[in-house]
Write a structure and sequence with these properties.
Number of helices: 22
Distance between the termini: 58 Å
Structural class: mainly alpha
Radius of gyration: 23 Å
Largest sheet: none
Number of domains: 1
Oligomer: single chain
Order of helices and strands: HHHHHHHHHHHHHHHHHHHHHH
């Protein structure tokens, strides 16, 4: 290997960067915010980037202390960056498998890992992603065709709060008010008075068309935008309003006699197959099309700078340690042959590179597609073996998730002159905290995955997707009914078509297409969840039409507060129920 050209950094004197208070603040916020993503991931299959919340809360806390105590040193720009790096790394631990392959493994095998081994596993796959990002850093940050939109949004917020401190305080008030309101509604519903789930008619209630009093879902709707929100509504109408009654009428799904209330569990066992097929084929098609497209300024362009990887001792030692951890844990925890476990490493590296490039270009992390591609690969290499199919694929998905998170942080650090190896240390601290907190929260929320998951309370769409793909690859399509096979073929065909159009059409035309991820997801989520998220998207869009400046300033902040408030209260309620049962 030859040395890589160094990345030009601004000549900024870095003061108080990896300070104890920055790390502790990020750790504290990570402990508070990680449960939100675990909760949301099990509810709706999506998670939320916590960088901006961490920036706002950390700034408000330490600037407030500095204002009250004259001898308190100012909370620096670089400390804010370390704070958000630790907190976002902890909260992004869900990409390590906690809300997808790990529960799917339990559902298929009946084997539930104890907390300590599970923490070690989630940490190890995330740890690998950190070192992959370190070696990708020179090439991807020198590629001017990759903008890393999520990192740029964090950078813009960081610069704005330091240039306009009063704006930061206004946003933090909105954040706290929304969190308080959302948490209060969740507390009222869980402990004081169960808010009625209204449905227009008993028949629609059986099909899960009820109004769910969840402000977290409204908050997610505000974030996903009008295109995704409307697609969820259309998907719910197609799946639960159109296909589900047809399935009941033709006895393809048999409900219990005189069944009342939402019949989610019985119907989703059939509906998830076309939904999963659509999502998987659409994301894989879109990913393959983008790989063959050459963005302007990319390394495939001869005019673009070509950065090469530089091998230095301590990062190489970290990479080797992460590989040793993953191979050892796959063998000890899941009984996977060491050579097969070792084979998962190059696949994880290749797919993490793909994910990082897609995130750099679009801001969308294709973790779901990466996981499915890994499952398909191991389905060919080791057919019929559930542990290999799920947990070796988990290696690729977890590494890709953490790698993309750190690449966004590196993009921010490059712009402000931060020290890269200090950001890497902060990321390692964050994933350690996230592994511990995330596993504990998961075990409290889901003590019995077999009984609780894939129910109306915990739809866990990502778990359903991983489980369905693993079942198909291990048992074959012949194990499914003829009607289900036709549903898979139809869903796959629609997914391939929409995925190709989304990648090939000009952006102005592609934005009129339905969101393939949301369309497939609507088949797996109860219609009540799609309705509330669609409501949030529509309301936010209407407000933006009337008051665009207010929406631009406060919509994301208010939505983040609604998500954090309800999810933290939901986790707290689960802890309370556990303590009462002791």
């Amino acid at each position: 290997m030859t040395d890589a050209p160094s990345i030009p950094l601004p000549t900024v004197r870095v003061e108080r960067e990896l300070s104890l208070r920055a790390v502790l603040t990020g750790a504290g916020l990570g402990i508070l915010l990680t449960p939100s993503n675990v909760y949301a991931g099990l509810k709706i299959g999506w998670s939320f980037n916590m960088s901006i919340i961490a920036l706002l809360v950390g700034f408000a806390l330490w600037q407030g202390l500095a204002g009250r105590r004259n001898n308190q040193p100012a909370w620096t720009l670089h400390e804010s960056n370390i704070n958000q790096t630790v907190a976002s790394a902890a909260a992004s631990i869900v990409s390590g498998g906690l809300v997808a392959p790990i529960p799917a493994y339990t559902l298929l095998t009946g084997h539930q890992l104890d907390p300590l081994p599970l923490m070690a596993w989630v940490f190890s796959v995330s740890f690998l992603g950190i070192w992959i990002a370190w070696y990708l850093r020179p090439a991807l940050l020198n590629d001017h065709g990759l903008k890393f939109p999520e990192g740029m949004a964090t950078l813009e917020t960081l610069q704005q709060i330091y240039n306009h401190g009063q704006e930061a305080m206004a946003r933090i008030k909105v954040l706290c008010s929304a969190a308080l309101l959302s948490g209060l509604v969740k507390w009222l519903d869980g402990f004081v008075w169960a808010i009625p789930r209204w449905a227009p008619a008993p028949a629609l209630e059986r099909l899960t068309f009820t109004l769910d009093p969840s402000l977290m879902l409204v908050g997610f709707g505000s974030i996903i935008g009008i295109r995704v929100g409307l697609t969820l509504l259309i998907g719910a109408a197609l799946a639960w309003g159109g296909l589900a009654p047809w399935l009941i009428e033709h006895a393809l799904v048999v409900l219990a006699p005189n069944a009342s209330g939402p019949q989610f569990a019985a119907l989703v066992e059939w509906l998830l197959w076309p939904g999963v097929s659509l999502m998987v084929c659409a994301t894989l098609t879109s990913l393959l099309v983008r790989l063959f497209q050459v963005p302007r300024g990319s390394p495939a362009n001869p005019r673009a700078p070509r950065a090469r990887v530089r091998i230095t001792p301590w990062p190489a030692a970290g990479l080797l340690l992460s590989i040793a951890l993953i191979v050892t844990l796959q063998a000890l925890l899941f009984g996977i042959d060491w050579w097969m476990a070792l084979l998962s490493i190059p696949l994880a590296v290749c797919l993490a590179v793909v994910a990082a490039r897609v995130v750099g270009a679009t801001g969308i992390a294709p973790i779901g597609a990466i996981g499915k591609l890994s499952q398909l690969s191991f389905g060919l290499i080791a057919p019929g073996q559930v542990p290999i199919n799920l947990m070796s694929a988990n290696t690729a998905g977890g590494a890709a998730g953490q790698s993309t998170d750190l690449m966004n942080d590196f993009k921010v650090g490059l712009a402000i002159g931060a020290t890269a190896h200090k950001q890497l240390i902060a990321q390692c601290i964050g994933i350690f905290i996230g592994s511990v907190v995330g596993v504990l929260v998961y075990r409290v929320l889901i003590p019995d995955p077999q009984a609780l998951l894939l129910t109306e309370q915990w739809p866990a769409p990502a778990v359903a997707t991983w489980k369905a793909v693993a079942q198909t690859l291990t048992q074959g399509l012949g194990a499914l009914s003829l009607e289900l096979r036709w549903a898979i073929v139809l869903g796959s065909g629609v997914g391939v078509l929409l995925g190709a159009l989304d990648s090939l059409l000009p952006q102005r035309a592609a934005r009129w297409l339905p969101s393939t991820a949301a369309l497939g997801l609507a088949f797996i989520l109860p219609a009540s969840i799609s309705l509330m998220m669609g409501l949030g998207a529509v309301v936010t869009w209407l407000v933006s039409c009337r008051w665009p400046s207010v929406t631009e300033r406060f919509a994301i902040t208010a939505a983040a507060g609604l998500i954090a408030g309800e999810s933290i209260m939901g986790v707290a309620a689960s802890f309370w129920e556990m303590l009462r049962g002791l």
